[in-house]
């Protein structure tokens, strides 16, 4: 798989998890995904920040919880932007809010923490030295970011205004966010991508997909709007078993879905994520 070196404006590019005890999370995720972790905390900084790598390429990070932030551990989604300041302004114009004003993160980049009108929080990342995830869609690396929301129509309006996203509708009420032109960016890096997707039965426009859109149903009254994270794995069942051995909790046992077999896991400190294995023979399954 080709390594990434940057992303277009409006494409999720990085994930990290905020943890009460980062060192404990390092032990869990290194044991689960085989990550090599390096502490990159600037001298004198409170807390810690550990960058996870596979084959030397950045895939994610584990950090301390920010002061004044939520007490629960969580995974955070970063979206690549040309300007964190301009994106923060667009977020407010579209009815969202700025949780943390744009600020510089050393020489790594500049970021703003923002929320959509339903309260789903994400980071707008204006890159400098840090170029996002270098390895994606391989076992142990980021596979998808997903917006979970009750108000799909409001989300369409907000993310369309902020990033130019459109919705690719799938069966069963699910959908995907597509950024027109993203497929051309990918095709330049990986010639023949569109043809391979078409041959595999992917729907038209799938090459432009940047995230998933997951409606929160009425039988989930306590679930707030949020961004979620899916990691690719080579065996969903083995991943679930290993997570339990390491002190995590399997919230949803491995199951088959269109194109994949997946499981939902909570780490020992409460951050939830999905582990997904690509299974082409599941293409015909109904969602």
Provide a descriptive summary of the structure in words.
With 287 residues, this protein is of the alpha+beta class. It folds into two domains: 12-127, Roll (2,3-Dihydroxybiphenyl 1,2-Dioxygenase, domain 1), CATH 3.10.180; 142-282, 2,3-Dihydroxybiphenyl 1,2-Dioxygenase, domain 1 (Roll). Helix content is 21%, strand content 38%. The protein has six helices and 16 strands. An eight-stranded mixed beta sheet has the order 2-3-4-1-5-8-7-6, covered by helices on one side. Strands 10-11-12-9-13-16-15-14 form an eight-stranded mixed beta sheet, with helices on one face. The longest helix is centred in the first third of the chain and has 12 residues, at 22-33. The radius of gyration is 18 Å and the shape is globular. The model has no long low-confidence stretch (mean pLDDT 92).
CATH architecture level-2 label of the largest domain? Roll
Q: Please give the domain count.
A: 2
Order the strands across the largest sheet as they lie in space: 2-3-4-1-5-8-7-6
CATH topology name of the largest domain, in short, is: 2,3-Dihydroxybiphenyl 1,2-Dioxygenase, domain 1
- Report low-confidence residues grouped into runs of 5 or more: none
Mind telling me the CATH superfamily name of the largest domain?
2,3-Dihydroxybiphenyl 1,2-Dioxygenase, domain 1
**Portion of residues within helices:** 10-25%
Tell me the number of helical segments per DSSP (H or I, 4 or more residues long).
Answer: 6
Using the alpha-carbon principal axes, give the shape: globular
